[in-house]
Amino acid sequence: MKQKNILSVKNLKKIYAGNQAKDNYALNDLNLDVKEGEIFGLLGPNGAGKTTFINILAGTVVKTAGMVNVWGFDLDKNPRQVRASVGIVPQEVNLDPFFSPRKLLELQAGLYGVKEKDRITDTILKLVSLEKQANSYARSLSGGMKRRLLMAKALVHQPPIVFLDEPTAGVDVELRQNLWRNVRLLNDLGVTIILTTHYLEEAEEMCDRIAILNKGNIVALDSTKNLLDRIQTKKVIFKTDKIIDIKDEDIDSLKVISKMGTEICVSYEKSKVCIEDLINLIKKNNVKIIDISTDDGDLEDVFLRLIKN
């Protein structure tokens, strides 16, 4: 079954007027489709245009040109329906310290015009594991609880798409795992998730597909697996029974990264060398290989290469 697009963006531009000679392109001809039900990653360094893109959908930034369609609604013709189809979890924690989670969610639902009989406040509190804190002041919540409350606020009008803008910036590892679990739960319920992050490990762990933005342009858009397959460099660590001497020029594309006693770490390009060549080179030195460990590289390698180019 073909998944339908829940978000389509064509030739989206946002130009901030600069001096006469040089306008500032925050987004430059952005083209993007997100499918219903996926977890989609928007990656890029600071200033790449990720937050501008989210703010255009939220209605707080006006686009310069291009077409945006969300859940079948055109942003130019139906801005209110577009906003109603999107939930946004911002980077900054902006909660009224004197309201309880329940009160905040009820208030937010009121702002979205959700009738009292249609509100699902308790369901949302349960979903983000805040039912026990439902009536405590927001100021008494821990950092992790506040993050989850922001997520809850984005869900009161039951939007089909939720944007998470750098959800785990400045968050410890345990909390990050916890937030990821919450995101997966939401996704299992059928919510499409769009995640902006500069933690590449987060994108690798969570996303089905990834777009990499740099200076307002998409420099890559593919499934996470295909992006990882683009990594040409492989690293290998050999432990041997005696010290060996290997040099870069022994095999094409080989680089000796480090040597410590009987342990040597090298990298090579997968397209030019197969691991047997390396093993044979080491055995030529009359040594026994005690242990081999390999590292396939990660999204960081792809990211840095694309952004350099």
Secondary-structure topology with pairs:
Layout: E1 5-19, E2 22-35, E3 39-43, H1 50-58, E4 65-70, E5 73-74, H2 79-84, E6 86-89, H3 101-111, H4 121-127, H5 143-154, E7 161-165, H6 173-188, E8 192-197, H7 200-206, E9 209-214, E10 217-223, H8 224-229, E11 233-240, E12 255-260, E13 263-269, H9 275-283, E14 289-295, H10 299-308
Parallel strand pairs: 3-8, 3-9, 6-7, 7-8
Antiparallel strand pairs: 1-2, 1-4, 4-5, 9-10, 11-13, 11-14, 12-13
Organism: Pelagibacter ubique
Domain ABC transporter: 7-240
GO molecular function: ATP binding
Strand content: 25-35%
The beta-strand count equals 14
Number of helices: 10
**For the report, how would you describe the main beta sheet?**
6 strands, mixed
| End-to-end distance | 37 Å
Looking at this structure, what is the CATH superfamily of the largest domain? Answer: P-loop containing nucleotide triphosphate hydrolases
- The averaged pLDDT comes out at 88
Give the second-level CATH assignment, the architecture of the largest domain.
Answer: 3-Layer(aba) Sandwich
Task: Describe the structure in your own words.
The protein has 309 residues and is an alpha/beta fold. It folds into two domains: 36-53 and 80-229, P-loop containing nucleotide triphosphate hydrolases (Rossmann fold), CATH 3.40.50.300; 233-308, 2-Layer Sandwich (Alpha-Beta Plaits). The protein has helices spanning 50-58, 79-84, 101-111, 121-127, 143-154, 173-188, 200-206, 224-229, 275-283, 299-308, and strands spanning 5-19, 22-35, 39-43, 65-70, 73-74, 86-89, 161-165, 192-197, 209-214, 217-223, 233-240, 255-260, 263-269, 289-295. Strand 4 and strand 5 (73-74) form a beta hairpin.
